[in-house]
Write a structure and sequence with these properties.
Blueprint: H1 8-37, H2 41-64, H3 72-101, H4 105-128
Length: 140
């Protein structure tokens, strides 16, 4: 029997917790690989980004959005492409707020990442991690 889809509030909470866990894993794994293993900082961070990307995909697919019934390859490609697009939009938004408008860089980063997190949650929930790919209907 298939598990029931998570309620929106629990999915939002899970997505937020995943963000905190991803940051911690990224920082910790980068430090571990560099400090303990002796890998270069560039290699350490690259490996860390890859691991976090995979963990985020799996957590979103199976835990946050309960979308195991969907096509995993389609979801992976959509997740990867949308991640690249979101990162590009975050950078452009940061440049507009900080460089063009003159908002302090920490305030700009906070605003950009806050809006981006909400946007990603809604996009992933409605377009990427749908449980049944035969249905083009977004979840209520």
């Amino acid at each position: 029997m298939r598990a029931k889809a998570p309620k929106p509030l629990s999915a939002i909470t899970g997505f937020g917790l995943l963000g905190v866990a991803s940051f911690s894993l990224n920082l910790g794994l980068s430090a571990l690989l560099h400090e303990m293993i002796g890998a270069s900082t560039e290699l350490s961070f690259g490996i860390s980004l890859t691991v976090v990307f995979i963990v985020n995909f799996l957590a979103c697919r199976y835990l946050i959005f309960d979308a195991a019934g969907g096509n995993p390859l389609r979801q992976l490609i959509a997740f990867a492409l949308s991640s690249l697009v979101f990162r590009g939009m975050e950078y452009v938004a940061f440049l507009l707020l900080h460089t063009v408008i003159g908002i302090h860089y920490l305030a700009a980063i906070t605003a950009v990442l806050g809006v981006s997190a909400i946007s990603k949650f809604l996009f992933y929930r409605g377009a990427v991690f749908v449980g049944n790919d035969d249905s083009n209907q977004p979840r209520p």
